[in-house]
Write a structure and sequence with these properties.
This protein has 2 domains: 43 residues, no CATH class; 39 residues, no CATH class. It is 54% helix and 0% strand. The chain is built from 4 helices and no strands.
């Protein structure tokens, strides 16, 4: 899931923050809020059927995407992978 966050931060930086110098925290906050509104409600995403995240969410809620819900479990921390009892209990 970290890749999604990193991708969003890159897009935020490239499309909203780069080349901007904000005079105040309030200006920066307003620009970021406006970008997030654009990103979630108007920007189409090729990875979700060419829809906006809001449109995709509504479609997925109604079960019309044909995509099953996928449950992602957190990975076993690296240092616990070598403890046999814990590894088998979490696998």
């Amino acid at each position: 899931m970290n890749a999604h966050i990193e991708s969003f931060h890159r897009i935020l930086e490239d499309n909203c923050l780069s080349g901007c110098e904000f005079e105040t925290y309030g200006e920066a906050y307003k620009a970021i809020i406006e970008f997030m509104d654009f990103y979630n409600n108007r920007r189409i995403h090729s990875s979700i059927l060419g829809l906006t995240p809001k449109e995709f969410y509504e479609l997925q809620k109604s079960g019309k995407t044909g995509i099953k819900d996928i449950r992602v479990y957190p990975p076993i921390p690296f240092f616990l992978r070598f403890v046999p009892a814990l590894k088998s209990a979490n696998s």
